[in-house]
Amino acid sequence: MYKELNTSMRTILTPGPVEAEPRVLRAMCTPILGQFDPEFTAIMNETMEMLRKLFQTNNHWAFPVDGTSRAGIEAVLGSLIEPGDRVLVPIYGRFGHLLTEISERYGADVVTMETTWGKVFDPAAVINEIERIQPKIVAMVHGETSTGCLQPLQEIGWACRQMNVLFVVDAVASIGGTDVKVDDWYIDACIGGTQKCLSVPSGMAPITFNSRVEALLLERKKIERGLADPDASYSTGLGRSIRSNYFDLSQLMDYWGPARLNHHTEATSMLYALREGVRIVLEEGLEERFSRHRLHETALVQGIKAMGLELYGDPACKLPVVTCISIPDGVNGESVRAMLLEDFHIEIASSFGPLKGKIWRIGTMGYSCRKKNILHVLGALEAVLIRHGVDVHTGQAVQAALDVYHGEKPQ
Amino acid sequence: MYKELNTSMRTILTPGPVEAEPRVLRAMCTPILGQFDPEFTAIMNETMEMLRKLFQTNNHWAFPVDGTSRAGIEAVLGSLIEPGDRVLVPIYGRFGHLLTEISERYGADVVTMETTWGKVFDPAAVINEIERIQPKIVAMVHGETSTGCLQPLQEIGWACRQMNVLFVVDAVASIGGTDVKVDDWYIDACIGGTQKCLSVPSGMAPITFNSRVEALLLERKKIERGLADPDASYSTGLGRSIRSNYFDLSQLMDYWGPARLNHHTEATSMLYALREGVRIVLEEGLEERFSRHRLHETALVQGIKAMGLELYGDPACKLPVVTCISIPDGVNGESVRAMLLEDFHIEIASSFGPLKGKIWRIGTMGYSCRKKNILHVLGALEAVLIRHGVDVHTGQAVQAALDVYHGEKPQ
């Protein structure tokens, strides 16, 4: 009565989800192992080891939360925040608002500071605010896909460490596409995303946190009802315990640690996918991978400029894996996107809030970030804009990108 | 540096996760579509339609939560419970404790009632308690995998409806393996599991809820910061809003409904897997599928008895997809399980809490529930028990199961 799945083959150049690596898709076909099968727990341990390398950290704790990226963010913030805790969120795009929203829901006294969309914060301004309001936590986005900006973090991290403030970073969009140096930047807890530069489908959120975070989690730890030994006593009151059961990192530590206490049933196939995705990243090499992302970004940017379009955002803080383009006056951005999808099977993105209808966003992330796609999108965008009556410099975009690839205009 | 995934092929006869359907694994290899691609939103809508049939309901709302089964439970309870709400949880095994734990964490005034593990509640006892304590919600497990028991629900559901109490049912273990009649049993919100009788990997939790639940959710609804139109005003205070952002069913309704408001990024490959798993269930037919589960359960039970082992639990309320066996005196249950896994590549389960070390549990769920596996586990268990010095009736278990399959002793 229902047919087999039969989908179109898209070229996905949004800031996520992007095309999954074919080897990752294949890894998901691997038959299931039981969650406490020694072969499976060995895969869990190995994945932790690989995630440490991805996050450039010596932290012991590095594992995925079984949910999409914001599940990882909620697990970290929800496990750290106690009602009334002060949290500083510097906002420079849509996802800073999400950090605020989640923190508020867990009862934090949230203080926000905002800067113009399309720019990032001067670290000194953030540090001044930390000194002034003395928060327990600073929560910040590293790569804002909504505006295509990348926030420098090291100075802020160092200041947090000096003032004994916890520094939580949302690196969902940047992990695997550009440097995320958890230890060097003094990040206490960091959340990555799978469906962007790792080219693993959405559904898991790799996180890492250090011993400062662990100490706080252990203070709030509570063994789950029905799991404690029959004779053991345990608190039944809420007390300081973490509000969510699913996102309780203290319980997840017991699931990912040697105790192997039953919590959720690990999402087997997604773990296989994550392991394969990170394996491919490490096989390519972090530096080599980041260089590849910069090369294709350059080709795309040169092509967009050659066409006569304008980039949106401050180039000094451009996120190398997302390129934002101002929609020319009088052009219906959604009509352009629809034609790209329908006629060329290419997906690019629009944006949110104040940028809705003002910019297009093209992601160059992970497996989607390759020459074939860059040349394809430039040619297609030119054709669609001509069809929409836009006066573009015809024939130049693809040539400019080819120049970059052929090394004639190295950036 | 890291090798490709290379796992053993296990026969998984636990109460989950069980072997994934090969067609489900294959569906996960389907390339990604963007989350707002019309082809993908059509798949989302179609999956909702298929889930309604699975849950035997006319509810509009039927969609997966992106997380493991307990994510679905937390989404339902966490979206309904406001601090101080009274919740009644009748407990007859480990997962009743989980419902209690989650409800407590969301600030409920939880009242529990317990019955001996291995039995279920007389509906009249539960109804008396509802009348006495007047809860807002009754939360109950349908199939308790920890004890292998199945709780009749219809009378309790009818009583809840009469008294205007919300009836929330955890059908994680039963959905797709035995009847779960959401409408006929007056269930207001129901949570299913993927990794058991649907034979889809863990990582999604299909749920359904009716208009009584929807009305309550709409009262607590709040548009996410950063998504509201720039000019719109919205409350920033917590108020009655739902505590979790990730599990906020009022926001998930806007993601799964025509508004298509951005929330998480739907877990594409897991949705493909769920759609394929439910498609296969509907293709087999619910009645035919439940009969198949009963046939293999009968063969297993006859084999276990013929071997001279004792079943655990009250046969009157046996969960047809889990068979519990008392571990013979003096036998180390974990040693038996380890030998089954190492020598025969078969996984069976132990249990929790008061049943730890006392019983083995064999699941007959979904794709794992087939003749090959039943005959294999009976032969292997006999061999392992002989090796452990247990005085079993040799050679009889497999014969008893074959008798069932050959129709000589129809049950």
Automatic annotation (TrEMBL), chains A, B:
Q: Where is the Aminotransferase class V domain?
A: 36-350
Sorted alphabetically, which Pfam families does this protein's record hold?
A: Aminotran_5
Q: Which GO molecular-function terms appear in the entry?
A: transaminase activity
Question: At the top level of its lineage, which domain of life is listed?
Answer: Bacteria
Which Gene3D superfamilies does its entry note?
Aspartate Aminotransferase, domain 1, Type I PLP-dependent aspartate aminotransferase-like (Major domain)
Cofactor field: pyridoxal 5'-phosphate
Keywords of this entry: Aminotransferase, Pyridoxal phosphate, Transferase
Tell me the InterPro entries matching this sequence: Aminotrans_V_dom, PyrdxlP-dep_Trfase, PyrdxlP-dep_Trfase_major, PyrdxlP-dep_Trfase_small, SP_NH2Trfase/AEP_transaminase
State the similarity comment. Belongs to the class-V pyridoxal-phosphate-dependent aminotransferase family.
Q: What is this protein called?
A: Aminotransferase V
- Source organism (scientific name): Brevibacillus choshinensis
